[in-house]
User: What shape does this take?
Amino acid sequence: MSPNSGSYTSGTVVPLTATYPSGWTFSGWSGSNDLSSTSANPTTITMKSDETVIATFTQNVYTLATSTTGQSSIAVSPQQTNYYSGSVVTLTATPASGWTFGSWSGSTDIASTSANPTTITMNGNETVIATFTQNLYTLATQITGQGNVLVRVQYSQQTTWASGSIVQLTATAAPGWTFSSWSGSTDIASTSANPTTITMNSNETVTATFIQNGYTLSISVNPSGAGVPIVSVNPSIGDYYPSGTLVTLTAKAATGWTFSGWSGSTDFASTTANPTTITMNGNEVVTATFIQMVVIAPPNLVINASSWKAFPPAGVYVQSGQTLNLSWSASGSTQYLNCFIFNATQYNNWQLSGEVVATSEAHGSGSQGPISATIQNSDTYYAVLFNDAYFSPIFGGPSVTVNESVLTER
Assistant: This one.
């Protein structure tokens, strides 16, 4: 108040002005009947005696209103209808499930617009807004077995869902498989139904499990390109066999090949028998192995009078690894013969050289004998007899035999 005090001559008119800080309001003057106005500010007083004047002030009272954007609530402490100017009020935002507090707005008197809780100083009637954002969650799917999962999306290229969204899941089994169940989240509406739904309450990972209707049986031939052996399967019930099914396998070799054995599984009854059986205890990948029969020429003699050599035509097969025995007997002391067992390379070289002594698998000479050679895989063999040029020609021809047990007619 100005002036606060002083001495004045009787009848002096003194002006009075009340000043006050922010948050307060002048209410009135009192204490003297000589005031020109008890409500005006400034006012005057006429000095008729010693005067005592009182200026009354009242503290301002303000309201606080709150609102939210999004799903949430605001707690105000202390919770009052009105607040004196300068009061500090605490605000606490509580987001609903699936929502996150973002910020405060609406007043410059908020201590922090990002902190939660925060405070506000009541410098006027205040309106405060708490903003919340809805959580976005991802949905990942996994497969056990063979199949796929279709996720119903609201928008193309959708990769996230707002909290609380209900997403439909549809499982499609691959051929030979059946959908079994869903797992991985407690938010799945039904773990057995297909389609089902999931409520997006968090980042979700869902697994669709498929069970195989039966087991597959795959059969290959070794070596590849070694003819086309026919492998028959009994029973032939489609692409899948129930667990424990006993399947009979029969291998039929192409011409020039012979069955050797089965491999690829421990579920064979026998790996050497043909036919054999296999028990379907899992997906089976088996191989039928065949061995090629080796071509050998017969020992039928064809006489060439100019060189006294014998050239046999091609004629039979013999299995690789077998022993070929060749015997001959020439009548007459002058019939001295050379006998060779050649492979293809040796035979071609001998034809070119015409030498009596030649590289061979086996060689014998004289009027009789046998000779033998072990047949190797993938080659042609020739049995050759000829009359030595230093002896007389053969009349009537020698007698020649081959162990026929190892031979197979072409």
